[in-house]
Amino acid sequence: MLPALEIHDMTVAYHRRPVLWDIDLAVPEGKLVGVIGPNGAGKTTLIKAVLGLTPLASGKVEIYGRPYRQQRRLVGYVPQRESVDWDFPVTVRDVVLMGCYGRLGWFRRPGRAERQIADRCLEQVGMTSFARRQISQLSGGQQQRVFLARALAEEAKIYFLDEPFAGVDAATESAIVNLLQSMRHSGKTVFVVHHDLQTVREYFDYVILLNLRLVACGPVAETFTPDNLHKTYGGRLTLLDEVAEAMRQRERAR
Fold first, then answer.
1. Nearest C-alpha neighbor of 78 from the set 145, 132, 12
2. How many CB atoms lie within 10 A of CB 155?
């Protein structure tokens, strides 16, 4: 089977300064993938480069064996919450309906079928009762759920979420994780930029370790190791040794 995502020799540069070097990776379909690395490692840049939002200095990206521009309808995207203008005067339901525009085109208005899709997606993220509320009136966790519902409305096969757990409470994080794992079980491929090393083994079954260059990519059990973590973070996190020791203890207990 074709990989859901395949990257060949990707280099990305800002003002002629490379921020990602020679990335080569392939991720099979139906995985919940954590994109892990320190601040400034290029995690958001990787996602934006895959989506064509940031130009490549070299290399190529393929979604199911074809360039992204040919497969964009297969892809859903949830950006960082801080990058969104939450004061824009629009309701929760209207935001979710935007996920249907890729199928409708810009000149057709959403109809009954699209409204039913939006309502179903709001129900999936527990936001049905907020459908008519202005997005500026929502909490950070509620805003994140709304944007996840919009991505679900796209009915994509592969999703990219940039720090979906940032600024949300524990209940919202747990609800999002359960939904993402359900998406994985239904055959979707989901990429999540993530920072909490202690939850990687619990949340994901595949991991990309990144620090300007690709350190490792593969199943969590084989790839999320103390050695690869030290290569990724260089000992910069005070929590790193604690995480590594907890992993060693878990392995000894097996």
1. 145
2. 16
Would the pTM count as exceeding 0.85? yes
- Tell me: the pLDDT tens digits for 65-97? 999 999 988 999 988 877 677 677 789 998 998
Gap between the Cα atoms of 6 and 25, Å rounded: 6
Q: What is the pLDDT of residues 184-234, one digit of tens each?
A: 999 999 999 999 999 999 999 999 999 999 999 999 999 999 999 999 998
Distance, in Å, from the CA atom of 137 to the CA atom of 126, rounded to the nearest integer, reads 16
Residues 6+ apart with CB under 8 A from 11: 18, 20, 21, 22, 23, 56, 57, 58, 59
**Tokens describing residue 95:** 């935001």
Long-range own/partner contacts, residues 208-211 (CB < 8 A, 24 or more apart): 208/25, 208/27, 208/33, 208/34, 208/35, 208/36, 208/46, 209/36, 209/37, 210/35, 210/36, 210/37, 210/41, 210/42, 210/43, 210/46, 211/37, 211/38, 211/41, 211/42
For residue 169, the Cα-to-chain-centroid distance in whole angstroms is 18
